[in-house]
Amino acid sequence: MLSERLQLKLYLEPSEHFEVEALIPVFHRFIRDQLIKELLIDVVDYSHVPDGPGVVLIGHGADFYVGTLDGAYGLVYSRKRGGPGPDARLADALRRLINAARLLEQENGLKLRFKSAELSLRLTDRLHAPNDDATFAVTKAEVEALFARVYGGDVAVERLPASKEPLSLRIKASNSPSLEALLEKLGGPPDSAS
Amino acid sequence: MTVATTWKQKLAGQVREDWAREIDIFETQIELRKKGKVEEKLFAETRLRRGTYGQRYDNGQRHDGEKTQTLPYPSAELTKGPVTMWDAPGMQRIKIPYGKLTADQLDTLSELAEEYSDQILHITTRQDIQLHFIHIEDTPDLMRRLAAAGITTREACGNTVRNVTACPYAGVCSTESFDVIPYADALTFFLLGHPDTQDFGRKFKVAFSGCKDEPCGLTNFHDAGAIARTRTVNGELKRGFEYYVGGGLGAVPYPATLFDEFLPEEELFPITQAVCRVFARLGERENRARARLKFVVKKLGIEEFKRLVLEERAKLRPDERWTSFLNDLHVTDEKPLKPGSELVPGNYPPGFEAWRKTNVQPQSQKGYSTAKVTLPLGDFTPGQGRLMADLARRFTGDSMRATVEQNMLFRWVSNADLPAFYQALEQAGLGAAGADHITDVTSCPGTDTCKLGISSSRGLATELHKQLTLISDQLDPAAQGLHIKCSGCSNSCGQHHVADMGFLGVSRNMNGRRVPHFQLVIGGQYKNNAGSYGLAIGAIPSKHVPKAVKTLTDRFVAEKLDGETFQAFVARIGKKEIRKLVDQLSVIPSYEQDPSFYSDWGDPREYTIGDLGVGECAGEVVPLVQVGLAGSERELFEAQLLLDEGNSDSAAARAFSAMVLAAQALTREKNSFLGEGVDEIVSEFRAHYYDTKLFFDPFSGGKFAHYFFRAYEHRAESASKEGAHQLIEEAQLFVEAAHQCYTRIAGALP
């Protein structure tokens, strides 16, 4: 992956009863009980912002959002700095995203279900990963290779058109493995901070 | 062609040379600090002058609701300032002179929020933009990208001239004497980096307003405030400014004092420069809490201050920049994209009429309107930033203003375009009505990100916004026009003193636990450039504040006289009536009955921290201290009533008495034989709490104790109305500090 900074999003199944504020105590608990292997710092509530990041779990190397930045609810893993080298970045991000999604699904009070086959990827580094055809070609190839390995079956990778946005891809896998199965393929829950 | 691998390479030639050099130097300072070759205090001042702040938890400690945990940052030994961890995320303040943003600048800011921050851009109460959770090592690139868009962060913080603010309607307003923008723009860059502004003991804020009566410029609480005026001299219309100095909010707010009722336009810059020189020379250096210009003006008196400024003015070497900008006052004029037009009656989009009613105002130029985008708490996403930039390009030709109410104002919208403009906003989730109305609550960052926050002002503001929005359609128009402002602590960044209902975060010990509260501040005036300041009536548990707002609003609607403002209503019914409400709401259920009262809005962690001892000592002493502190609050309230009655001397005496009672209550913790004599109380308080620094808090040091000692020294002097008002404010802060001190010594605070 050309960009150290990236945002990988897993979408939520629609739910009538879901209120994003319900994530606030859950994320605080993630920090308190160190449930995720990241240096987690704080929780920020942006639920007042329409189509915003929602509730954000701020970390040192990465943040997690549950919000509607692109119009649909989902969990975003946003790598900011550090992490593995270019060849392992995408797989590492997917692993951490799936792990966090799995933990959220296990929160009985939330009743969340993720659509494991629908993701989006944004490369939030306009210097190293400009939104152009070359970056798209490289990134698409990486996504296809990883998803073929982890998901099996086909994967459709679509580039979103907005030119001022960072390079943004919509990813749809033909298979929908469970989060547990995906995590197992990715090496299980991360055992260290990114 | 070489591919750029750094932003410095990529933006080479696109950044002003001097700005590029400054950023390079800052980047070098970062590297030197990492190698331990720059002392941490010096580095802190360096980064602050570039607007790079610390944020909450940057000391590497965070309370998780049960215990304090260490945040194991990778560069654990490295700091970016005293007790400020290198890797801790920080806030970047970005000065936006008089709030003006071009579409390209907003695109750039959006990119930066997307890449370096948490996907949110935040408009401050002084027309800046802030990005949060930024890593220090990302700041040079961030600054380069801003500089390429024509924005510098230089002097966005530190002891410098801060963002020059101005009325966002300047140039299109029907009540202004003339457009102040060319003056604000030129003064911004005249003062930026000027040698006479580099050696202050504290910050210096400048504001411009086109007229005196409206609130838009808020000149009354600025170090230097300029209100546009014209005067006919020998048959010729001359421009000038009603010029004020020494205003400021902060812990103890001071109204600005008139320096000159008509300062000719050609004297605006040299006089401001001379004011800066006097401030640099005579401003306090040691005691940060007394270092703003307001204290210099107060200490010297306006006549002596003016004499010194004029003396300094006479010494100044002439500078062509003082007047060169006057040769072309149209340089900042905006050219509308479209001709003016009339709004065509027809089938408007749903919600348009309500939005137009609250968010649209006619301009002084026929056929055009201003349109305000309501941004809850001043927050918006990068996508929304890009949308607003595109709307500017599509409808107005590049004009936007960040406002002190934390919204975005578009100017030069041709009236016929208003429905399409609204529709585009609505599709992006930005079509909310109610800008600058009761639902549009202003707030500082508070405990969300600010190191000084005591209570969650943003959490409260969010809750008030939610609850009031649900009933806004049914609210009486008089209630809809009320302003609510929240600050997380006494530093007033939320400008709570100038709201109809202001709230300022404090904490209280109740039922053996710590409970978030907000002081209700009533009587402030927003109009007339923030014409007068409110006073705190009493503390309300945070979770009861929405009920307080609802009750006060309902009563105002039910009992107001024709045309009566909220301020006049409060004055008429009296603060005793308001205090009754506060008293009713001060009671909360026990923790076992309802633990939600013991956590703050939007933050489920228990606000009460640590394990309070239940031993005999605590069991006996704690109530006595609380009784004493409650007594001091009663005295404070009585002081306010006396002030309202015009009895300044008695009000001042009561305010001092409140301080004595608080000091006595605390000091009896250490000396149970303490008597009633004031001299003894002051002496013992000094010995047990000041000399030992037990009364000091981590951020303000001993400043609140200084208020007490000064009040003691001057207790025999007669007090003016303004002096009594200030003493009440100081007593309020002293009593609050006593509450905090008590909580610390009782073991409930880390």
Ordered list of secondary-structure elements with their pairings:
The complex is a heterodimer of chains A (194) and B (750).
Chain A: E1 6-12, H1 23-32, E2 40-46, E3 54-59, E4 62-67, E5 74-79, H2 89-105, E6 114-123, H3 133-150, E7 155-159, E8 167-173, H4 179-185
Antiparallel strand pairs in A: 1-5, 1-6, 2-3, 3-4, 4-5, 6-8, 7-8
Chain B: H1 7-10, H2 17-34, H3 40-49, E1 52-53, E2 61-63, E3 68-70, E4 79-81, E5 84-85, E6 90-94, E7 100-101, H4 103-116, E8 121-123, E9 129-134, H5 139-148, E10 165-166, H6 181-191, E11 206-209, E12 224-233, E13 236-245, E14 257-264, H7 268-282, H8 293-300, H9 302-315, H10 321-324, H11 352-359, E15 360-362, E16 368-373, E17 379-380, H12 382-396, E18 400-402, E19 408-414, H13 418-427, E20 442-443, H14 457-471, H15 477-480, E21 484-487, E22 501-510, E23 513-522, H16 527-530, E24 535-541, H17 545-559, H18 566-573, H19 575-585, E25 599-600, E26 603-606, H20 616-644, H21 648-667, H22 678-690, H23 703-713, H24 721-745
Parallel strand pairs in B: 10-11, 11-12, 20-21, 21-22
Antiparallel strand pairs in B: 1-6, 2-3, 4-5, 6-9, 7-18, 8-9, 8-17, 12-13, 13-14, 15-16, 16-19, 18-19, 22-23, 23-24, 25-26
Helix pairs in contact in B: 2-3, 2-5, 4-12, 7-9, 8-9, 14-17, 17-19, 20-21, 20-24, 21-22, 21-24, 23-24
Work out the radius of gyration of chain B: 26 Å
Structural class of chain A: alpha+beta
Order of helices and strands of chain A: EHEEEEHEHEEH
Strand arrangement, largest sheet of chain B?
1-6-9-8-17
Largest sheet data of chain A: 8 strands, antiparallel
Radius of gyration of chain A: 16 Å
Low-confidence stretches of chain A: none
Give the N-to-C terminal Cα separation of chain B: 58 Å
Structural class of chain B: alpha+beta
CATH architecture field of the largest domain in chain B: 2-Layer Sandwich
| Count of helix runs of chain B | 24
C-alpha termini separation of chain A: 15 Å
Oligomer kind: heterodimer
Shape of chain B: globular
Quickly name the level 1 CATH class of the largest domain in chain B: Alpha Beta
Please state roughly what percent of the residues of chain A sit in beta strands, choosing from under 5%, 5-15%, 15-25%, 25-35%, 35-45% or over 45%.
25-35%
Overall pLDDT of chain B: 91
